[in-house]
Amino acid sequence: MPNQTNHFHTPEWIHRYIDSPQNRKHLYHKTLLIIVLSQFFGGAGLAAGITVGALLAQDMLGSDSLAGVPIALFTLGSAGAAMLVGRLSQKYGRRSGLAAGFLAGAAGAIGVVFSAILQNVPLLFASLLIYGSGTATNLQARYAGTDLAGPRQRATAVSIAMVSTTFGAVAGPNLVDVMGEFAVSIQVPALAGPFILAAAAFGLSGVLLLIFLRPDPLVVARAIANNQEHEDPAEVDVPQDTVNRKGVYVGATTMVLTQIVMVAIMTMTPVHMEKHGHSLGDVGMVIGIHIGAMYLPSLITGYLVDRVGRITMAIASGITLLASGLLSAFAPGDSMLLLTIALALLGLGWNFGLISGTSLIIDATTLDTRAKTQGAVDVLIALAGASGGALSGMVVAHSSFFALSLGGGLLSLILIPVMIWYISSYTYVQKEKMKSQGLQ
User: Where are the domains of the chain?
Assistant: First the structure.
């Protein structure tokens, strides 16, 4: 009878996936393909603000100390967008939440272009906040591929979504000069050119998801979980509440710390390079390699997180970020090679942290609350990035790029005691569970 009741309340088309593992597998692969395509364009969109945001602010505001404001603003905007996209996804499915976020990001990029034309600073700030929606959505899209993935496929599914961002994210910074020339040819300031690319890229991502992400993977996954619960509640794997909460805390801490360190050092690297005589093309190449390192190793990282473990890779993240911070601090400002290696390590450390942290969050949540929790955690990540971006300019203006890089590297070491605490907590809960079952 419970199964009949569930069938009564479930739309008929969903039963094609509930009753057929083959159809579920096909939908899982189709979802990954759509996410891959959308992330290709989304990566190009987010790269614009990262590459020239600080330089545009420096040009319009005439102050180095405020060069971190653009990244702080669009990261702050991404915080609000992350919450809204998460809630929209929880209520209506991934398709609605992700499409809305990307289209809002496109509108923000258009606003940045007009602010540069009009030399209107308030419009620039407002537009950067809205542009942050695209950044938040690009990050949240990584969750969509995991809705239909098994526990041993989750990090790999995240990695597939992320690695597809690489192509657009690497292409974006390397199109800075081309887009700058195009902008000048249509009477737009050169530094606004990459935001023209961002508007088109985010817009294409939104339209692609709106049209093709059907049926919605989260809606189908929720229906499958509900059906399993009705048929045999004993088979539903719900993690212990204590482990659940701590898993969310530790996953969030991993991603927040790596975001602060990565954004702080990355934000001021273009300004640091410009002061040491590097060209805009040099800056674009270094940032392009950095963003490539953020996303390109994802398939290997995902495999390692699923096989070696979330905790091990989170610790590896802290160590890699420390190496990046030390190299950034001690490398001569005119050394392209050392700065490139430092920024590549910065991206790699962030990659390790994001995929391991994301997997911890997914493991510790159920489908009833997963999208909303993911949105809330991404708010913290965005706020961390906003803080890192805002403070980075102030630290460099009142101290040095050396102090910023060294401090960021040392901060990443906090991940090690956090992971030790989590392992000890998990071991304690498992022992207590075994005792209660008379197994020890």
Answer: 13-436
Contact 97, 194 (CB under 8 A): no
Q: What is the Cα–Cα distance from 176 to 166, expressed in whole angstroms?
A: 16
What SS3 class is residue 278?
coil
Task: Quote the pLDDT of residue 10.
Answer: 63
Give the tens place of pLDDT for each residue, 383-420: 887 788 878 888 888 889 999 999 999 999 999 999 99
What angle (nearest 5°) sits at the alpha carbon of residue 348, between those of residues 202 and 127?
30
Interval 336-363: pLDDT, tens: 999 999 999 999 999 999 999 999 999 8
CATH of the structural domain 13-436, one choice from 1.10.8.60, 2.60.120.680, 1.20.1250.20, 3.10.450.50: 1.20.1250.20
Long-range contacts formed by 309-314: CB under 8 A, 24+ apart: 310/155, 310/251, 310/356, 310/357, 310/359, 310/360, 310/363, 311/356, 311/419, 311/422, 311/423, 313/352, 313/355, 313/356, 314/250, 314/254, 314/352, 314/353, 314/356, 314/357, 314/360, 314/415, 314/418, 314/419
pTM of the model: 0.77
